[in-house]
Amino acid sequence: MTRGFRLFAVVMVLAACAQQTAGAPSGPDGDKIVLTGDQKADWAQIVALENEAKALVQTDGCSSAWDCRTAPVGSRACGGPRYYLVYCSRTTDSTALFRKLDAVAAAEREFNSRYQIVSTCEFRLPPKVALSGSSCQAH
C-alpha cells in the first residue's frame, strides 16, 4: 500500500467519523430532549423516546413481503444507525414513526458529542425482511 493511499484511507475514516451536532435535539413533531449533564439520566431520556418509537411499530397486517420495511434507530458516534426496526407499512403510521426516530437520532448525536462517545465506523445495513403469515420479520 502506498503512503498516499494510506493517508487517503485515514482521511476518509476520519471524515466518516465526523459528527454533526447543533443545539438541543428536537424532532419535527416537538419531541425534545434537554440534556442535563447527567450521562445516565440523559441516556434514559433517549431510551424512553426510542421506546415511544417502538410502540408505533406494527409487524402484523401485511399480505406481501413488499409491504415489510425497515427503519433506522439511533445514531452511533461514528455515524449510522445502531440497528433497524422491522415494520409493516400497511399498519404502521410510517410518518409518525420516522418523526420519532428522527428525534431519537438527533438526541443521540447530541449525547454522543456532549459525552465524547466513540464507536466503530463500520456501515450497518438494514436486515432483509420476510413475511411469515401476515407478520413482517427480519430474515
Task: Describe what you observe in this structure.
The chain is of the alpha+beta class. It has one domain (25-138). The chain contains 3 helices and 4 strands; from the N terminus they run H-H-E-E-H-E-E. It has helices at residues 3-17, 39-56, 94-114, and strands at 68-73, 83-88, 129-132, 135-138. A two-stranded antiparallel ribbon has the order 1-2. Strand 3 (129-132) and strand 4 (135-138) form a beta hairpin. Helix 2 runs antiparallel to helix 3. The longest helix has 21 residues, at 94-114.
- Counting structural domains, the number is 1
Per DSSP, the total helix count is 3
Overall radius of gyration: 17 Å
| Backbone structural class | alpha+beta
- Proportion of residues in helical segments: 25-40%
Largest sheet: 2 strands, antiparallel
- End-to-end separation: 38 Å
The arrangement of helices and strands along the chain is HHEEHEE
Give a brief description:
The chain has 139 residues and is an alpha+beta fold.
Offer a few descriptive terms.
alpha+beta, two-stranded antiparallel ribbon, 39% helix, 14% strand
